[in-house]
Amino acid sequence: MASHRRKFKEDAGRDVISELPVEVKERILECLPTRDAARTALLSTHWNEVWLRHGRLEFDKDFLECLDEKGIALINTINDILMLRAGPVKKFTLHLDYASQPPHQSDLDRWCRFLSRNGVQELNLYISCNHKLPSCVFLCRTIKQLSLGGFILDLSIPSCIFPSLTSLFFNNVDFSDNVKGIG
Predict the structure, then answer these.
(1) Helices marked H in the chain
(2) Rounded to an integer, what distance in angstroms lies between the CA atom of residue 111 and that of residue 35?
(3) pLDDT digits (tens, 9 = 90+) for 123-134
(4) How far apart are CA 65 and CA 78, in angstroms?
(5) Domain chopping of the chain, boundaries
(6) In angstroms, rounded to a whole number, what is the distance separating the alpha carbons of residues 93 and 124?
(7) Residue-by-residue DSSP string for 102-140
(8) The pTM is what?
(9) Tens-place pLDDT, residues 90-121
């Protein structure tokens, strides 16, 4: 009986969740909102490594609610999360209809450049302030699905736009005269 109690105490101190295979931990993170997935990094170094390779990031109303301050705090948080990535970001969603202070065009440009160089396959951008879609998005070879809302498409379109795109969705997108004149 005493050996059974000793074994129970040893098992109670084990971190069984951190011992899960990486694939299982990755699947767990895929099921969580971004803010909760980020919080797993605090559990242990095992979870931190999985979080840094997590390839699905969603910055939306739920994410905004967890920030005390919006605006600059939001921009800095997204910058920090993106720049710490240790793997490709396969899916990126930015839905800021609810943001009190939307990002500057330069922030959006930097994020899209990062994503287009790091294997983004699904890009969902909804910003209610009519930013221009960064030109790197048009040429990104990895984007397969693109959803845009609240943007202005304004550039001289190169001969090969969206080379790998299989799905495109526009919501409240304005086209400049440069785009309207192409036919």
Answers:
(1) 2-12, 22-30, 34-39, 45-53, 61-65, 72-83, 105-117, 135-139, 177-180
(2) 18
(3) 999 987 878 889
(4) 14
(5) 1-54, 57-183
(6) 5
(7) PPPHHHHHHHHHHHHHTT--EEEEEEEEEEEPPHHHHH-
(8) 0.83
(9) 999 999 875 567 788 999 999 999 999 999 99
